[in-house]
Amino acid sequence: MDNKNHWEQVYQTKQANEVSWTQVVPQTSLDFIRSFDVGKKASIIDVGGGDSRLVDYLLNEGFENITVLDISASALERAKQRLGSRANEVKWIVSDVTEFIPDTKYDIWHDRATFHFLFKPEQISKYITIAKKAVTGYLIMGTFSENGPEKCSGLTIKQYKEDQLESQLSEGFTKIKCITEDHITPFNTRQNFLFCSFKVID
């Protein structure tokens, strides 16, 4: 099964409380975004956003230029249904991030738990090349840490240490800060994440 079919099946057969990545409040992501002190017109993209509630909170805070990208149309449809009429205030893009062709620039690129699914060097290279071209301000990356799970949704992931993640992004971005934190899943298990913020190298 290819990636798209895998994620379509996940979102067509499982509810939010049945998948490990669900967050009631995406607090760490919000804290990083707020730390950049950008205006409400800042262009923000949530890469691999699925039906994450980050978009809800960004809309509540008054952000006006939000894009959510995911490989699964079903995931985005669930988010749209949840938001109701507010979904019209968001740009929705169905795409594999490694095949994404941005038609705009982003002040903030946010990725919680998409990058760590990329194993092949050519996939990682494509991702970083796209991000470098698209981002004019900041990048937030959340991956499983060296103490995190080795799989997610039945797929093997790539764990990262802080220096490894910094090295991967060093050609286009400079690190601002990194933290690790435990995400408590809907099943009350712990997943250790590494979150790092970066700024575009001028």
Task: Describe the protein.
The protein is globular and about 40 Å long. Strand 4 (106-112), helix 5 (121-134) and strand 5 form a beta-alpha-beta unit. Helices cover 29% and strands 30% of the residues. The strands form two sheets. Strands 3-2-1-4-5-9-8 form a seven-stranded mixed β-sheet, sandwiched between helices. It has one domain (3-200): Rossmann fold, CATH 3.40.50. It is built from six helices and nine strands. By secondary structure, the chain is α/β, with parallel strands linked by helices.
The proportion of residues forming helix, as a percent range, comes to 25-40%
- Across the major sheet, the strand order is 3-2-1-4-5-9-8
Radius of gyration: 16 Å
Supply the helix-strand structural class: alpha/beta
Task: Summarize the model shown.
The chain has 202 residues and is α/β, with parallel strands linked by helices.
Task: Give the arrangement of secondary structure elements.
Blueprint: H1 3-13, H2 27-35, E1 43-47, H3 54-60, E2 65-70, H4 73-83, E3 90-94, E4 106-112, H5 121-134, E5 135-144, E6 151-152, E7 155-156, H6 162-168, E8 173-184, E9 190-200
Parallel strand pairs: 1-2, 1-4, 2-3, 4-5
Antiparallel strand pairs: 5-9, 6-7, 8-9
Question: Which descriptors apply to this entry?
Answer:
seven-stranded mixed β-sheet; Rossmann fold; 6 helices; single chain; alpha/beta; two-stranded antiparallel sheet; 30% strand; 202 residues; globular
